[in-house]
Amino acid sequence: MKKENNITQSITHTMMLVTNHCWKYVKKNSRNSDMSKVQFNVCSVVYHYPGISQDGISKTLQMDKSSIAKLIFKLIQMGMIERKVNPNDRREYQIYLTKAGKKAVKDTLSIVNEWETSVFGTMGENWKETIMEYLTQFEKAAREKEYDV
């Protein structure tokens, strides 16, 4: 007899729950408690790709351009990022973290790493690598399915 497929048995739902647990830990242990998870995601992309365009952030996070524009505006107001005109295309802006933005991202990544070490530490050796390997394959298959590759 086939088990009923409900939301608590969904891989996607479980990944969301894990992410939420991590973010609650970050919020509890962070001095940057005013930054939302999605604002951090934008800053994290800019941290890893300084000078990225708004369109590049949109594609990387798979969010619509209007949402990214609103997030960038708010992050500029918060003093986390700055926009500079692209010298090669004056119609486009390049996005950079400010000094405060870099510090916030580094501090938050440190807390995330602490959380991961603590969580994976309870699971024994090599779990992090194994889970990352499977999640990477899962994300690749999901991307290919989305674009029918």
Task: Tell me the total number of β-strands.
Answer: 3
List the uncertain runs.
Answer: none
Give the strand order, joined by hyphens, for the main sheet: 1-3-2
Q: So, the CATH homologous superfamily? A: Winged helix-like DNA-binding domain superfamily/Winged helix DNA-binding domain
Order of helices and strands: HHEHHEEHH
Domains, number? 1
- Summarize model confidence as the mean pLDDT: 87
Summarize the biggest pleated sheet.
3 strands, antiparallel
Give the count of helical stretches. Answer: 6
What would you say the CATH architecture is? Orthogonal Bundle
Give the amount of beta strand, in percent.
5-15%
Shape: globular
Distance between the termini: 34 Å
CATH topology name: Arc Repressor Mutant, subunit A
CATH class placement: Mainly Alpha
Which structural class matches the secondary elements?
A: mainly alpha
Could you characterize the architecture of this molecule?
It is a single chain. The chain is mainly α and 149 residues long. The protein has one domain (31-146): Arc Repressor Mutant, subunit A (Orthogonal Bundle), CATH 1.10.10.10. The chain has helices spanning 11-29, 37-48, 54-61, 65-77, 99-121, 127-146, and strands at 52-53, 81-86, 89-97. The chain has a three-stranded antiparallel beta sheet. A hairpin with a 2-residue loop joins strand 2 and strand 3 (89-97). Helix 2 packs across helix 5 (99-121). The longest helix is centred in the last third of the chain and has 23 residues, at 99-121. The model has no long low-confidence stretch (mean pLDDT 87).
